[in-house]
Amino acid sequence: MVVETNPPPGRPQPHTGEGNRAVDSAQGPAISIVLPVHNGERYLQAALDSIAGQTFRDFEVIAVDDCSTDSTPAILATGAARHDWLSVITNRTNLKLPATLNVGFAAARGKWLSWTSDDNLLRPDTLARLIDSVRSNPVDIVYAGFAIIDEEANRTGTGEVGPASDLVFGNCVGCCFLYRREVDAALGGYDEHLFGVEDYDFWLRAADAGFRFRLLADELYDYRRHGGSLTDTRSRQIHALVAPLMLRRIDALPASPRRAEALVRLACRDPYTLRWRLIGRAWHDHPLTVMRHAGSILRWVKYAARVRLG
Q1: 2-11, pLDDT tens digit by residue?
Q2: pTM for the complete prediction?
Q3: What share of the chain is helix, strand, coil (3-state, %, to 5)?
Q4: Element containing residue 132 per DSSP (H, E)
Q5: Rounded to the nearest 5 degrees, what angle is found at the Cα of 180, between the Cα atoms of 179 and 181?
Q6: 135 pLDDT higher than 70
Q7: Please, is 137 exposed, middle or buried when counting C-beta atoms within 10 Å of its C-beta (0-12, 13-18, 19+)?
Q8: What are phi and psi of 179, to 5 degrees?
Q9: Gap between the Cα atoms of 40 and 72, Å rounded
């Protein structure tokens, strides 16, 4: 099924979850996956094939084409004709990622929600492992480890995940996850003003709302890093958006070694902005923590210098 959306002029309003609540999810699949895509022809077919290969079959995929000008529409149309689990929504105007996600989740019918990118890959047992975990544990959000791959799908590293308590240090949830539709409804979807860090903001708000997280340490997903990925092309803007999100969470902590470590980590994550004041605050909280991270601080200074010199 292919649907064209026609949003009103101007910035769309944040998703309120009302559309989701209006759906009779009892008649829908167990899992809804939103696949936002903009000019994703290079890797899109591989992403669809990885979804088609899932051992767990009770799912739907809502692909939302955000005004692609390459062969993405043709690839999606062929996929929708071939697979009854795939439907396609086409935005008439380019809404960017957070708003495109909200469009997709407004159409989702599943009890459990997730999203994936057109350049990433699910392992064959990704959905099976995630759904088994939420069915056997009283949680609202489950997430798993992931590998980092290159343009040719060669493994180049391991993604960083950790307990939800580590959200103060950054996005420790990562890119492989499943959450109850009630989470989306309660949070009002993704903040459309935070393009690039909409996922980190979503997890922070979910934690603040008291939703329960569970981490599966096993790798269940492949995250592709390449020159055209958002993480690479919008690095400076993403750093600028992440800092206030982290700082609000850090400021809520009492003075402690943990807060000192969080301040050091925030200071050392952005090569574009020198935040010596944060190092000073960390020293005031716990000098020993700063001394333990002296090597990281020095590496950050050297890296920042290289970035600034071009």
Answers
A1: 555 544 433 3
A2: 0.88
A3: 45, 20, 35
A4: helix 126-136
A5: 115
A6: yes
A7: exposed
A8: -145, 155
A9: 6
